[in-house]
Design a protein that fits this description.
- The complex is a heterodimer of chains A (73) and B (240).
- With 73 residues, chain A is mostly helical.
- Chain A is 78% helix and 0% strand.
- Chain A is built from three helices and no strands.
- The longest helix of chain A has 43 residues, at 16-58.
- Mean pLDDT of chain A is 72; it is low at 1-12 and 63-73.
- The longest helix of chain B has 43 residues, at 183-225.
- Chain B has seven helices and no strands.
- Chain B is an all-alpha fold and 240 residues long.
- The chains are: A mainly alpha (73), B mainly alpha (240).
- Chain A binds chain B through residues 2, 5-6, 8-10, 12-13, 15, 17-18, 20-21, 23-25, 27-28, 31-32, 35, 39, 42-43, 45-46, 49-50, 52-53, 56-57, 61-62, 65, 68-69, 72-73, and chain B through 18-19, 22-23, 25-27, 29-30, 35-37, 39-40, 43-44, 47, 86, 89-90, 93-94, 97-98, 100-101, 199, 203, 206-207, 210, 213-214, 216-217, 219-221, 223-224, 227, 234-236, 238-239.
């Protein structure tokens, strides 16, 4: 159905209204993009901290601790 | 825990957004009155509906938190409100662009629909300083829940008040008497509403997953650091 849509579609009138419509959709997409970028930065931080804790745990700080960490994860 | 089903939900959201945009630009007819600029309607109105419903959902989660005392519901409430505030920014931005295109002004102060949404948005903007001004976590969660319930109850009351008001310029598309959208426009609108709704749910789930992971990480750090209590910390300090 989607493949047929462009055939049935009317020509887009890119007159004065076009820049406003494009502006509205671009603003929306930009907001989503900024949000996703912030979330990506947060996930990177979590990954970095997790890596740091995993390295710490692997350095051999006693078996009981390691077992507890494994159970938590 | 929160990440379960996130992948399939994300794919469904992306597919719904693609279908929605295709319908908006290739299927829905041009509006006889506004022409091409009316395409903003399929973005602006679903965003505002989802944002307002999200605020109410945040209030419902807050009720569940106060009833059960389970901090999980507080997290749901916080993230619902947080996401709705982000959607609210998009509503104000797209609405202003549409207003400029249709009415020649970025903002019209004597229009109840616009001003009432701004009031709701600003009210929820105070949620963050209100919440984080309280240091004790339990009190913070309780007070934030009371705020979310009160503000959530205000949203439908505000909506009804605006519908009862006599507007001069803002169109009433879903009028109670006659009018309304033609079938193809209504179908496109409903698909857009579904897509934006799915986007809200996906982002809420995404945020909850990140928050949960961050919380688990802090727990892990505390567990690893516990035997060193009294001495210096063996793990690098938390990055906030």
């Amino acid at each position: 159905m989607l493949a047929l849509l462009p055939i049935a579609a009317p020509a887009l009138p890119l007159d004065e209204a076009g820049k406003y419509v494009a502006g509205a959709y671009v603003v929306f997409l930009a907001l989503i993009f900024v949000y996703v970028a912030i979330m990506a930065a947060k996930l990177q931080r979590i990954e970095r901290e997790l890596h740091e804790l995993a390295s710490f745990a692997e350095q051999g700080n006693g078996e009981p601790e390691r077992e507890r960490v494994t159970a938590d994860v | 825990m929160y990440g379960k089903g996130l992948k399939s939900l994300s794919i469904a959201t992306l597919a719904a957004l693609v279908v929605s945009l295709s319908l908006v630009f290739f299927y829905a007819p041009l509006d006889a009155d506004q022409g091409f600029v009316q395409k903003i309607f399929y973005l602006h109105v679903p965003l505002s509906i989802v944002a307002l419903v999200g605020f109410i959902v945040g209030g419902v989660f807050a009720i569940l938190h106060l009833r059960s005392g389970d901090s999980r519901w507080d997290a749901y409430s916080y993230v619902s409100i947080h996401m709705s505030v982000i959607f609210g920014v998009a509503v104000l931005a797209t609405g202003s662009i549409w207003a400029k295109a249709s009415w020649g002004h970025w903002w019209v102060w004597d229009e109840p629909t616009l001003v009432s949404f701004l009031i709701v948005f600003l009210m929820y903007a105070t949620y963050y300083p209100f919440r984080y001004a309280i240091e004790d976590r339990d009190r913070q969660a309780r007070y934030a829940s009371v705020f979310a319930i009160t503000a959530g109850a205000f949203v439908p009351l505000n909506f009804i008040a605006v519908r009862l008001a006599q507007s001069l310029v803002h169109p009433r598309v879903f009028a109670t008497t006659g009018g309304g959208l033609p079938g193809s426009m209504m179908f496109t609108f409903l698909v857009s509403l579904l897509a934006i709704g799915l986007l809200w749910v996906t982002l809420v789930k995404f945020e909850l997953t990140a928050k949960s992971s961050s919380g688990q990480l802090k727990r892990l750090r505390r567990a690893l650091d516990a035997p060193a209590a009294g001495g210096r910390s063996r793990v690098a300090p938390e990055v906030s």
